[in-house]
Write a structure and sequence with these properties.
- The structure is a homodimer.
- Chain A starts with 7 loop residues before the first helix and ends with a helix.
- In chain A, helix 3 runs parallel beside helix 6, helix 12 packs across helix 13 and helix 15 runs parallel beside helix 18.
- In chain A, a hairpin with a 5-residue loop joins strand 1 and strand 2.
- Chain A is globular and about 80 Å long.
- Chain A is an alpha+beta fold.
- In chain A, the strands form three sheets. In chain A, strands 3, 4, 5, 6, 7, 10, 11 and 12 form an eight-stranded mixed β-sheet that branches.
- Chain A is built from 21 helices and twelve strands.
- Chains A and B meet through helix 10, helix 11, helix 12, helix 13 and helix 14 of A and helix 10, helix 11, helix 12, helix 13 and helix 14 of B.
Chain lengths: 594, 594
Amino acid sequence: MSDFVAPLDDIRFALNHVADLEAISKLNGYQHADPATAATVIEEAARFFSEVIAPLNRVGDQQGSVLGTDGRVRTPDGFKDAYEKFVEAGWASCHMPSEWGGGGLPYTVGVVIAEMFKSANLAFSLCPMLTQGAAEAVRAHGSEELKQKYLGKLVSGEWSGTMNLTEPGAGSDLGGVRTKAVPHEDGTYRLFGTKIFITWGDHDLTENTVHMVLARTPDAPAGTKGISMFLVPKFVLDESGDPGERNDYRIVSLEHKLGIHASPTCVVSFGDDGQGAIGYLVGAEMAGMPNMFTMMNAARIGVGMEGLAISERAYQRALAFARQRIQGRPVGASGSGPVAIIEHPDVRRMLLTMKANTETMRALVYYTAQQADLAAHAETGEQRQKSSDRLALLTPIVKGWCTDLGVEMASIGIQVHGGMGYVEETGAAQYLRDVRIAPIYEGTNGIQAMDLVMRKLPIAGGGAVTDLIEEMTATVGEMGDHHDLAAFREELAIAIQGLADTSAWLGQRLASGDIDAALAGATPYLRQFGTVIGGWLMAVSALAAVEGPADFEPGFLADKVNTARFYGEHLLPQANGLIPTIEGGADLLADARF
Amino acid sequence: MSDFVAPLDDIRFALNHVADLEAISKLNGYQHADPATAATVIEEAARFFSEVIAPLNRVGDQQGSVLGTDGRVRTPDGFKDAYEKFVEAGWASCHMPSEWGGGGLPYTVGVVIAEMFKSANLAFSLCPMLTQGAAEAVRAHGSEELKQKYLGKLVSGEWSGTMNLTEPGAGSDLGGVRTKAVPHEDGTYRLFGTKIFITWGDHDLTENTVHMVLARTPDAPAGTKGISMFLVPKFVLDESGDPGERNDYRIVSLEHKLGIHASPTCVVSFGDDGQGAIGYLVGAEMAGMPNMFTMMNAARIGVGMEGLAISERAYQRALAFARQRIQGRPVGASGSGPVAIIEHPDVRRMLLTMKANTETMRALVYYTAQQADLAAHAETGEQRQKSSDRLALLTPIVKGWCTDLGVEMASIGIQVHGGMGYVEETGAAQYLRDVRIAPIYEGTNGIQAMDLVMRKLPIAGGGAVTDLIEEMTATVGEMGDHHDLAAFREELAIAIQGLADTSAWLGQRLASGDIDAALAGATPYLRQFGTVIGGWLMAVSALAAVEGPADFEPGFLADKVNTARFYGEHLLPQANGLIPTIEGGADLLADARF
């Protein structure tokens, strides 16, 4: 029996009434993705992830992936079989373009599939996520030959992919990359160097693994400008395109991590045998960094989603426990004898906090995915540009805000269980251990905050932010007719004003060159931004629910309003408490004596 | 080499200028505890915990305590030897009353010793903490015979103690306790039943272990009123008072926990051999619960302190890493080439947040301990009552607020490390795993919040709260002369007003019998209360520092002001963001459809 059930109604509601899947399905190329078809695909996927993938979550944590003395990584029991089924069913590729062998569904549906996979088994989900990234890199920047040879296999998931970026001296700042790529007379390159933190760097799930490696050609300039991207297969393809000779690199060790134990995090050493690992240039020389950046939105949204996915899973487990655990009686409750702890107001607060934040994150993730689809497929250039700007603006928020919240929600999930939450067998603790990586990788949340302030706030001279604020303000106007939403409306108006103020303040700092002050406030600004957008999307959600759409039953819709109101009236007001620290400047930070 | 160094200057500053140790040392019975003597004791203890106990933190995590096939628990390498040294040096008993063989130091100094132990090795520290609790129980409620036989050994630490409260069906609500205690003709009792979550329930550190067990006599009424307390030794004492025959109970299993692996968390089964475990009544029959409560302040402050202690340790590790890790260059920084990450504003924010919260927790813990000393030893009955009320008020705040913050600070500590923070060898992850228990045990933080609202807010008709608010407001007045503190002062005044408002609102709910609404807001109210008291104590600290006391160097004092200002201007303003949720009532919680 699975202990994860995909929240299909919540998903459908967010798709139909926040992300507007119907509009997406009318875009050029997506016509086959009408909401009904999408719902069918999602239901099938939900069954698969719940029945096949979720039951492997705990064994994955306990056994972990292990590096054998033969230098090969062995995945936990059941992973290989499940992965084969995953590829067979086409879940790896359902939202990849059909011209490359994918299913051609919109990204907005793709994120739903990814969310369910991550809820079911975060560690496992990283393998296809990385593979998709590699496929994107080949698709966007690879030569025709590379595409021909690798793309189909990566899209289908028959082969897996990795991203090889980090080195011991190059983490957040990739300018320090030292791995060398020496041109060979046959037009290929030979790579030498050590990469660390390589997720799913080796395993036994596929017959080949394709590494996308950042490295430096011999005369490349220092810093990020001198970095190129190379494709380095585990097994070099023979003339018929099948995996042939083992390439010259080794898996030196796996990290012992707090969580995601099933995901092998490898130290990879290239060129130990002296000849160097055979690599193929992807894109132009020295274009490695800009080419990386083109994949960054998807990767960051993918990681941001992990906060959502683990919150959902942690919520489901906490809820099940709270329903079944009998303990105490609420003060002043009628009747005698103890009750299920879900009857206690404080437990209800914890559960509703988890539920409201999870729904809010889902709304944000789906909305952002919608913007990605619009950025790629909207009819006019103007529409595409607008969505592209909004996507760029939202990406660091999805990554930073959702992953921070994911950690907090997983921690609340433990708390709901009391002492049982601290016992590993319960499973609640694993979610906290697993999700704790999400604020770190794919650009730490500090990096996301810097990106938001330094790169996204200035988009269109601040227009990307002011456009969004205008749109949010319009929603406040729409709430005016609904008496039930009056308190929420008031809080939302206040919170939006607060965001407008801090955005203007930060903009002024950037304009006057007081970068330190802007950066000092970046992290709480990202938190405020996420909290306020969340409030807006919950307002959108509440407005849709009060309309009483026929595709949902009234009790469900009433609860949507209730949850949205809890977010708006209880959680959203905390956003303005951050204003003083956002606008507090860098002086106290600079003067601190550590 | 130890990686933990007790922050002696910070400790001394908080003792002398927040908790006013000098005044404590003038109390009857504490005259030998003048600040200079206390400083010497603390310095010696600091060396011991840093050199002997801290190096065992990691091995304790890796090996854990293990239950052998012989039914005995084996502690990790080095623990037995270190424990012997701990007892020999007298650290177990330094603040216990001298008439029982203790060192007679004030509790205010005792908490400093405990803080350092917990920073050094949280799992290890639990053994003496539980032992102290057992000693307190015997001292307060035991017969003369029990005192004679057990107290000296418990105070010295030669024997260890445990608290046996929880059962599978009785956690937060002990009314469900089912363990039976059958009177025996010789005046003792025979115990039968199963207890779970028994911290340090068995081990190889001492030659005897003394369990304080809550159980029910045959005709006892249901609920908490029918519970009595029993002393159940591992080895029943022979006629000369030495450990003799093994008592009839077994260690059934140890829990696999998220953290504190060195602390054996036992399932204990009493009376499996049929005769029952021999137990001695402690206090009157049916007085088990009230007698437990007399020990509760100390136990809850002891656990609250764990948030402080782990924050300190996590801060030290994060700081060391941030100084040494070279990565990136702040935007607009002069010079070329990468710098230590401590130069990045966002990293400085994380470090200063950890530092400020740690200092604030320390101020609160020491201040609360001072109130405990005053409650016991102040000259007049009125002074003792006032301090007793304040101690009662602060206890759930110390427990709940400090432990929640401890989890958050440990999580920031991981974040400072980036990817390295997620690797177990780094050590940062262990702090999060270890401290995550603190919001759960010794009364979950939800229970603390209920206690604050239902039992503490009504003390003296609300007078305990209004007295404190008055005193805090007076401090705002004192800040008026200091230009540097103007912004802090303004924030403090606003935050105190917010606390006064929510306190009055909750008081009205209690008065009108709308208990659900009061309980619904309890958890954020505790958070607000802790945040505001923290602001007050940081103001006290800043005012002391600007006076320029001669016992500290000017740079240190300037930094105290800087840290206090960061707390007051950046963190404190978040308190008022909680008002809407505190006063939001229970309606949305009650209507939620889970």
